[in-house]
Amino acid sequence: MFLLTQGVVKVRKRVTLMVVVVTAIFGVCWGTGQLVYVLLYFISEDIGAVLIAISDVMILFNSAVNPFVYALLNHQYRDKIKKMICCSLAARVHPEPGTQLANTTTQPTLGTSSTQ
């Protein structure tokens, strides 16, 4: 019974860490953008196109970095991604015997009719 409780506590700690990290990254990335746009609204001076571009990139960066954070902090997510990538690559390199790849790019040649 004690081992089960320790396992549950360990899983909860990992999940809590992942939520805190994802939330912190979200706050930094989106907070930067919100701050810039609030400054744009209230300050009459031009704050610069570079600062606006940086804030927009930070917002996009938030979405791009999430899968890497999940893979870093969650071993189940990491294992599933590895399995998905390996299966995809193995299917391309070594197709299963007896399977044919559909050729959907063939076009009728001259002298043949497509309505035969």
Q: Give the count of structural domains.
A: 1
Q: What about the largest sheet? A: none
**pLDDT < 50 stretches:** none
| Tally of DSSP β-strands | 0
Rg, alpha carbons: 26 Å
Query: What proportion of the residues form beta strands (DSSP E)?
Result: under 5%
Order of helices and strands: HHH
How does this model look, in words?
There is one protein chain. This protein has 116 residues and is mainly alpha-helical. It has one domain (11-93). The protein has three helices and no strands. It has helices spanning 2-42, 49-73, 75-93. Helix 1 (2-42) packs antiparallel against helix 2 and helix 2 packs across helix 3 (75-93). The longest helix has 41 residues, at 2-42. It is flat, with a radius of gyration of 26 Å. The model has no long low-confidence stretch (mean pLDDT 80).
The gist of it:
73% of the residues lie in helices and 0% in strands.
